[in-house]
Amino acid sequence: MLDQTSKQGTDERRGAERKPVSLPGTLIFDNCTEDCTVFDISPRGANVTASNRVPIDRPIKLKLTRHGEFVGKVVWRSGDRMGLKFLHLSDDPKLLLESDGNGIRLVS
Questions:
Q1: Across the strands, what pairs with 78?
Q2: First to last CA, the chain
Q3: In the 8-state DSSP scheme, what is residue 16?
Q4: What is the pTM of this model?
Q5: Is 95 helix (H, G, I), strand (E, B) or coil?
Q6: Which of 3, 8, 28, 88 is deepest in the core (most CB within 10 A)?
Q7: Residue 101 has pLDDT above 90, yes or no
Q8: With contact defined as beta carbons under 8 Å apart, do 69 and 84 qualify?
């Protein structure tokens, strides 16, 4: 069961291809922190897993070690999976993702 916002049709709304990753991170919201794992990421958002206490449609930071912090909000959630929409990045995918010999790396 999806909470508040359905993830159906998100591929069409993204506008930027997400890259598969497996990165540990921290979500920061309402003076709380929650460990998470990022499963895919693009300049516009990310798919993460974390506890279902993370609020929908409120400001949130995704902190990735060695990659910086990304401001956004949770736009959908299904159990412990959720979609983040980044609020401060441009449409240019080179501002966030670059390819290298080992896959991708994030650039903040």
A1: 81
A2: 34
A3: S
A4: 0.71
A5: helix
A6: 28
A7: no
A8: no
Q: How many Å is the maximal CA-CA distance in the chain? A: 40
Angle CA(47)–CA(27)–CA(41) in degrees, nearest 5?
A: 25
72: left (phi over 0), alpha (psi -120 to 50) or beta: beta
* Region for 73 from its dihedrals, namely left if φ exceeds 0, alpha if ψ lies in -120 to 50, beta otherwise: beta
Higher pLDDT, 58 or 2: 58
Q: Which two tokens stand for residue 67?
A: 């990659």
Length of the chain: 108
Q: Where are the alpha helices (DSSP H) in the chain?
A: 10-14
Instruction: Give residue-wise pLDDT tens across range 52-78.
Output: 788 888 889 999 887 888 899 999 999
The tens digit of pLDDT for each residue in 8-49 reads 444 445 456 778 889 999 999 998 999 999 999 888 899 999
Class of domain 10-106: mainly beta
Distance CA 58, CA 73 (A): 5
